[in-house]
Amino acid sequence: MGLFWKQEKEVRRLLEAYIAAVDASMGEFEKAILCFLEKGGCEEFRALDKTTHKNESRADDLRWEIEQMLYRRALLPESRDDLLSLLENYDHLPNLAENITFMLDTQRIEIPAAYRERFKRLMEANIQAYRHVCRAVELLLNDPGRVEEEVQPVDQFESASDGLERDLIIEIFRSDLPRADCIQLRDVIQRMGDISDTAEKLARRLDILSLKKRI
């Protein structure tokens, strides 16, 4: 059973555009974090924050179009619900990215030099988890037999993220930083870790959907 009928070319086109918009948002997010770690909340960072948000908004618009189209077309209810559930969960990824850059900008958070390298590694682990899920979604549309192989590394990156997240938070709260700063940093670190947590849930869902698509 396919996720949607082969003749649903317009649904497929919108899905591909949606995936591209999310990927653009996540790419700008990665640039924004690297910029923030190097230069702080500068104009360049704020510009990247805006483009992260712009692409996230574009993805939201495309998701709405897809949802409207799915309800108008004569898809099997199960196929439609599978796609709607996938979109709902996938949409958490750019939302998290946009929320993190917004937090860094509006709350004027500063990441002490002692934690920047590990924060960078935390970001990289979460971006890698996202990238595997992104490729898995593309494979679901084109080559579902390869989805399982693509999602396997997600658990590894999620575990690496959990370890970095835990160690950073413990060390920060044992430092001499003001309590308010510790809480701000904890919130950003946990939000960053939510990306790989979401990716892990998506990986499991994609694995199931790939099996259903091959039946």
CATH H level: which superfamily? Phosphate transport system protein phou homolog 2, domain 2
CATH class: Mainly Alpha
Fraction of residues in helices? over 70%
Unreliable spans are: none
N-to-C terminal Cα separation, in Å? 5 Å
Report the count of strand segments. 0
Number of domains: 1
- The gross shape turns out to be globular
What is the string of SSEs from the N terminus onward?
HHHHHHHH
Number of helices: 8
CATH topology: Methane Monooxygenase Hydroxylase, Chain G, domain 1
Rounded to the nearest angstrom, the radius of gyration is 18 Å
**In percent terms, what proportion of residues is strand?**
under 5%
Secondary-structure arrangement, i.e. CATH architecture: Up-down Bundle
How does the major sheet shape up?
none
In brief:
The chain is 84% helix and 0% strand.
List keywords for this structure.
single chain; 215 residues; mainly alpha; Methane Monooxygenase Hydroxylase, Chain G, domain 1
Q: Could you explain how this protein is built, in words?
A:
The protein has 215 residues and is mainly α. It has a single domain, classed as Methane Monooxygenase Hydroxylase, Chain G, domain 1 (Up-down Bundle). It has eight helices and no strands. The chain has helices at residues 9-39, 43-72, 77-90, 92-106, 113-142, 147-151, 154-173, 179-214. The termini are close together.
